[in-house]
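Supplementary Data S3. Sequence and structure tokens for construct A.
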Amino acid sequence: MRKYVVLVFMLAATLLPAQTRQQWRDSLEVINARIAKDPQNLNLHLLKAEANINLEQWEYALAEYGKILHADEKNLAALYFRAYVHMQQKHYDLAKVDYESFLLIEPQHFEARLGLAHVLQKLGRKTEAIDEYNRMVQVFPDSADAYASRAAYETELKQYDVALYDWDEAIRRRPQNAGYYVSKADVYLRQYKNKEAKDVLNAAVKQGVPRAALKEWYDRCK
């Protein structure tokens, strides 16, 4: 299953590299011609939906994913990217359904879990969102991003003590990530603890982060 997940998520990226809007239009024309000759080819419909997304043709992308899922209700790529399109259109309830359907098939997919947690935030379901972030940390205990994602939401909720703990855990797993130090310093600054914030920035510099890159944050510590 894991190999399949990787393959479907690499499909569009490998066959259609980054392009301008006109190149996407040209690619879409080519893909449509191929679909006309091979209408049952789900991979072509995935590629068409990707082109639609890049052209911000959200309704067309939804239609393509609908066709794919009608033929294959467990198509992971279609579920994942349809959830993404629903997010773009602020159809949060529908995005939630697609992420949950995806995770029933592939429960250890980090990005889908993160997407579900984000949807729950948008829906204002704070307890469920925190539960999902907690589940991410449990499922991915070695992931700095799991701790960082939870810390960011805890900061938003003004749960500063637990946020500081999670930023520490993220830093411990990826000590050279400048953004983690800045985010931790921001938590201290929100609490008017300027000295502690400056200590965090100093720790970042010791890890090799250029001091000049942190000037704005040092200035805020004065």
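Construct B, processed identically:
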Amino acid sequence: MKKYLPIFVAIFFSILALYFRIERLAYHSFNVDELMQLFIINRPFLDFLKMLTTNEFCSFLSGDYYLIYPFFKVFQYNKWGLAVPHIIATILGFYLLYLICRLYYKTIWGYIITFAIVCFNATLILHATEIRTYAVLPTLALAAFYFSQLLIAQPFINLKKKWLIGAFFVLIIWFHVYGILILLLSFIYSLLTKLHTKFFKDTFKSNIKFMSVVLSVAMPLWLYSIFGSHFSYQGLRSEIMFAHIPNPLVDIIAFFKAIFGNLMGYKKLYPLFLGIIIPLIIPYKDRYKHIALLLIMVFLPIILILLSDLRTQYYFLQKQFIWTMPFFALFIGLAWESFLVYIYERFK
């Protein structure tokens, strides 16, 4: 019975999380951004593609438009029908989270903490069924992370599987402008976890060649979408840019409170924040890997997104780093599990 506890925990929290997300959808009405997306796809496919170049900042890197397009043809403005692909993406996200937890956790506590944080996170609940790309980004990030882990752990994986993973990585890059960041950070972290192993050199060579092929296929469209014809954006004043998250140059404490509050996403789980200091003060075996996870998969992307928004004078919003939130939950789960295992072994 004990060996089935992790999957029971995963199923329980996944069902509970899905309930919260569907409940949110029941009371939701289309917002301006959603209506704009539906307006663009409400036309023949070729006309829709032309509209992307004049109405989207990154033109063809608009994967959610393609995802919703066939469902809009069937369901039109029915919010339940349009939410189907995002509900499926949410379910897949929890399955991927379980697979990742299975790679890392030794006890049931890691599963409970990680799934609880993801289940109750307000930002994840808010955007899970919204007709926007932010509903899919967390699942894509988890998929990129999981398959990167597989590639690094099995550098000589079956060729057919490797090409399928490669094709999926190309789709991640094409799905959204953040796709390249999601994929490369997942790959870099996974590669660094093998840095001091005797197989690192072979693993590095094999996977660098693989990623070079992926990037050579994906980058032409990515670069064209960024530097080619696209919607021109007028910069915002700083007080509007930071209307939702305080400006770090004005109030750094409030800024950090907002960032960490959104990463946890549920006030009753705030005591778990103490897990951040655990790898810094307790000398357990994998603490440097856990710190690297927090730095590379959570802090670094938030910093890069903030710098990008400052450069373009765009809104800095929590939904932009929504895809880092499952990794924050994973880190907190790893930290607390490591603490509990360390204490148990010390006093056994």
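Residues 13 and 275 are 21 Å apart (CA to CA). The mean pLDDT is 91.
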